[in-house]
């Protein structure tokens, strides 16, 4: 699998989404986020993932606008938060995000969590935004198979992306297989498991390939055709996380990493959350 930092996947509507991006969850508004995004763009990243909840959209927008990289080469994702779900409120939330970002359009807009009784109306607002040309692609985050089936029973435009927690301790195989069958691109958040690198197999593979455990994890995601957005605010770590294209994990080692699965979440359960 010959990949580079600019490698992309094709979404259902034909647009290209970078395979590797920078997540900015918990990055502080201001210089911390601006410097992280700038470092990522300088290192070759072309996907930046933010959300209304993160309260750093303004910093992301400033860094994108001042980067010197043509806007059409940068793929910006943001998300509508749970308290703003519903048709009219989601439309207002999108405009608030656009005002903060200071961009003419968003590349991908996601429903952040499947809030019961609200996510269908929220997604209908995303369809409106897509049809009006304000977003290039739409999708969801933290949706399980039954959420997707429920949504797809009434939506006009199939979700193009489903962003979920995924890592070797939570491999999500049934969900991934469903998304692949439906042409929905899977994207992983928290791919580095909160830095849980003390797993013996990861240490073994790190020594074998001469790569850090984080690089092993990122490469594993990429070889599964999963878009991934490791988070860091440190320029050296951002560059290190992008140095995953000069090696390839063997099929056997991919399977061994798959075997670590414990169905273990570090984040909330999409069927049981209260925020």
TrEMBL record:
Substrate binds at residue 112. InterPro entries: AKR, AKR5G, Aldo/ket_reductase_CS, NAD(P)_OxRdtase_dom_sf, NADP_OxRdtase_dom. It holds the Pfam family Aldo_ket_red. Keywords: NADP, Oxidoreductase. The keyword Iron does not apply. The record marks 79 as: Lowers pKa of active site Tyr. The active site is at residue 54. Residues 19-262 form the NADP-dependent oxidoreductase domain. One of its GO terms (molecular function) is oxidoreductase activity, acting on the CH-OH group of donors, NAD or NADP as acceptor. It comes from the Bacteria. Belongs to the aldo/keto reductase family. This is Aldo/keto reductase. It comes from Cohnella lubricantis.
